[in-house]
Each structure stands twice: as C-alpha cells, then as structure tokens.
Fold this sequence. Notes:
Residues 1-21 form the signal peptide. By secondary structure, the chain is mainly α. The protein has nine helices and no strands.
Amino acid sequence: MATKVILVSAVLVGLVSLSSCRSLAELSEQKTYSSAPSYGSSPTPMYGTGGGYKPTPTPDYSTTPTPSYGSTPSTPSTPSYGIPEIPKHGFTGSCDYWKSHPDMITAVVGSLGNLGKTFGTACSLIVGKKLENLHDALSNTRTDGVGALLREGAAAYLNSIVNKKFPFTTQQVKDCIVVAITSDGAASAQAGIFKKANEYHY
Length: 202
C-alpha cells in the first residue's frame, strides 16, 4: 500500500513538473514571437521626445504665401533746391563770406535787402544809387573809410541777426553806421571795429 502511494505521488510530481516545463516553454516562445518585428504592417508613428518615425506634414498649396523681405524702406525726403539753410546759432561770417554767399543773405533777411531802409536815408544819400542792397555794400570796391564801413557794417548787420552772442545787437550796428558814415575818419575807425567782431577778434 505504501508502495502504491509513493508510486502515485511520483507520477503526480512528474506530471506537474512536465506541465510546468511546458508552460514555461510556451511562455518563452510567445515572448520571442512578440518581440520579433511584424512584417507587412506599417510602423506605428512615435511622437514626443523619444524619437522614432515622424511623418512629414503635407504642405498646403492652396494659398500662396506672401514673401517678406524685411521692413519697407522709408521714402527719402525730397531735397529742397534753391532754399539755403540759415546759418546755425553762434555762426559769424566775415565780409568775404557774406559777399560770396548772396543766397545766405536772402535766407537771413528774406531778400538782398535795401541799403536805405536798412541803414537810413542819410546813408543812401551819401553812398548814392550805385549801392542798393546789402550784397552791393559787401562787394563795393571803394578804398576810403566809407567803403570799408559799408563792407564791414553789412557783414556785422547780418552776423547780429544770426548770432545772438555777436558783440553788437542789430540796432547798435545800424546806429554806429548812421553816426560814423558822416566822417571818413570815423567811418574808417568803426569799420576796423566791425572787422574785428566779424573775424572773432573783437
């Protein structure tokens, strides 16, 4: 009886062991087949940071994009010809400068000026009709004191308008010319003073 029990036990243990081995073998076989690549089916796209197959999106040709070439260039301003720029504040020009720049005289006083209206009737009577405006006064070739006064006085007059720090105000320039023009000696002395102021030496 004991022998039969042992024999049955041995058979049962053998069957259990065989069944366990078979189950392990099948499990291993299934794992091998599941890890093998599957042919005939398309790969599953992988998205995210892990890499893998990433399909390229199909471009949309229904709308044409407008090319952008940066910012639109600004339209350059049209230069104004024939209208000179008034000298900057602090500018002082010599007699020669104003004589060679009649356009600047026009920019400062609006025209070439009128000698009688600028320096008074007495001045125009002494000078005569040959010198009618500021440019004429600057360009005169007289060699006496009156000629020098007209040249340097006209330059001083223009400098007093464009430069508020000029040693003489516009009214002082006009007053000095009216007083000094009556005498050649006084005119020469005043012309020397104006010349120093016009050339930064006063």
